[in-house]
Design a protein that fits this description.
The chain has 71 residues and is an alpha+beta fold. It has one domain: Alpha-Beta Plaits. The chain has two helices and four strands, in the order βαββαβ.
């Protein structure tokens, strides 16, 4: 499954670090974070999408405490 999320990230360097960390997670097929538009394209296995997304958010917050997905 592939979804686009509105995110909050403070700088382009932070966005790159978060993206790199999320891409290392098992089950993540694609993660593209665009600092300028404050959006994240995220693709993961359909069966475990929600579980992998929660782990991705947790990982993002470890790298950059201000990282969040805006719902």
């Amino acid at each position: 499954m592939k979804k686009v999320f509105k995110i909050e990230v403070d700088c382009a360097n932070c966005a790159a670090k978060v993206e790199k960390a999320i891409l290392k997670l098992d089950g993540v097929k694609e993660c593209n974070i665009n600092f300028m538009t404050q959006k994240m394209l995220f693709e993961a296995d359909d069966e475990k999408f929600d579980e992998i997304l929660k782990l991705a958010i947790k990982t993002g917050k470890k790298v950059e405490p201000d990282f969040e997905i805006i719902k």
